[in-house]
Amino acid sequence: MANNLRIAVIGTGRMGTDHIKRLTHRIAGADVTGVVDIDAERANTAAALAGDHAKIWDDPHAALASGEYDAFVLTTPGMLHYDVLMDALGKRLPVFCEKPLTADATTARAIVETEAGLGHRLIQVGFMRRYDSGYQRLRAFFEDGSLGTPLMLHCRHRNPDPPPNFTDALMIYDSVVHEIDGVRYFTGEEITEISVRKGRATSSANGRLSDPQQILMRTESGVLVDVEIFVNALFGYQVHTEAVFERGIVDIGNDEGAYVRSAGRWGGEVTPGFEQRFAAAFDTEFQGWVNRLRAGEAPDGPSAWDGYAAAVCCEAGVKAQEGGETIPIELGPKPMLYG
Ligand code: ISE
């Protein structure tokens, strides 16, 4: 395709806005020519960010049916994804779907079955950490075996504060979903069980959340994973992973940037949020997606199967959160389309 990809962004909240800016200013070969939101004020602001040549819609299905777009970016809350994805699949339209794929494992499975029935991939799921240079460097050790067999992963995921109305369940569905995908990405294995430990809660969570929590997982070959999820960590944003191999330890996600000595102090700046921490990863992810679609190729990033596998783990994680026991994870058969 010689022309720029005409993209409509469905959902113009925090993530949608960030992607509109990215697609408009940093990604080559794409134009945001449509924005969809039921909130007219937000849609207008978003259209202005796209350079004011974006048509405004209040109904995603009308935008999908219009024939005016080559591809869609779906950034509404997860519980609104299913209907839009099903409609797009029915119309054979490509969608970049921010995580989560859908709100639960049953609907995620239905998406997988429907796409598999079409025989080619149309959906890419926004697990942007796979495009982070640290993530890619760590994965290389899993692939080349230079440090021997992987044994354990220790993950820390800290946010300054959570979105309004955040819940214990969202700590898994919205936050730990990234570690769940990360474990699958690093090890190339499925996760077989999950459990959750709650302990003393920070007073910053105001009694609304049991924060922080410890999520424990095991993969098919027995790699043990522990995740600290702490969404009221206050100090800033941090995603850190330490992998333990037979012959070495690999550490990623440490503080980066300028190390400054001034006014009797030394140090640097902590990234304030995921937009800054993963800015380069988001850009790489989107440029790759746009390039593939412009070349007439199917997306090759995280698939609907990856979104489904994460959904099953998240559902099990929430069950574990509620009941305190270890929940086994069973994904069922994998359609050929996903390798
Ligand atoms: C948010 O939705 C994200 O995807 C961020 O990467 C994650 O750090 C945060 O916890 C989520 O709420």
Written as H for each helix and E for each strand, in order along the chain, the element string is: EHEHEHEHEHEHEHEEEEEEEHHHE
By CATH, the topology of the largest domain is: Rossmann fold
- Give the overall shape: globular
Strand content: 15-25%
Taken together, the total number of domains comes to 2
Radius of gyration: 20 Å
Helix content: 25-40%
The largest sheet, given as strand count, sense and whether it forms a barrel, is: 7 strands, mixed
Average pLDDT metric: 96
**Unreliable stretches covering 5 or more consecutive residues:** none
Q: Could you state the CATH homologous superfamily of the largest domain?
A: NAD(P)-binding Rossmann-like Domain
Number of helices: 10
Judged by helices, strands and strand pairing, the structural class is: alpha/beta
